[in-house]
Amino acid sequence: MEDFYLQNNKVKSLFFVFSNIVSQKMLKSKIKINESNTLLDIDNKIMDCYPSDKKIYPCVLELDNGFIKNIYYQSPEENGLSIVKQKLNLQ
């Protein structure tokens, strides 16, 4: 997920939320945060809406007029990043 972020954090149609952060300092040392489209969910409030069996996996929400249209997970069962790349014509 970090690689996807580094390659696509300037794409204006994407907004990123990092949850379940073990160390902000470590995360910020690994990647440069683009503050215009990135939120660090320090209190894990967003994770409360994840299904309990999916909380460990990165998640992509597709929005339509501010409402969740689809949820894609990057997990052993699903390749959410490939779906997003395909939808946005990303390399």
Report on the structure:
The chain is an alpha+beta fold and 91 residues long. It is built from three helices and four strands. Strand 1, helix 2 and strand 2 form a beta-alpha-beta unit. The longest helix is centred in the C-terminal third of the chain and has 9 residues. The model has no long low-confidence stretch (mean pLDDT 87).
**How much of the residues is beta strand, in percent?**
15-25%
> Number of helix segments?
3
The helix content is 25-40%
Give, in spatial order, the strands making up the sheet with the most strands: 1-2
Compute the gyration radius: what is it? 13 Å
What is the 3D shape? globular
Distance between the termini: 15 Å
Rounded mean pLDDT is 87
Number of strands: 4
Q: What's this, in brief?
A:
By secondary structure, the chain is an alpha+beta fold. Helices cover 25% and strands 21% of the residues.
SSE layout and pairing:
Layout lengths: L1 H7 L7 E3 L5 H7 L7 E3 L18 E6 L2 E7 L6 H9 L3
Parallel strand pairs: 1-2
Antiparallel strand pairs: 3-4
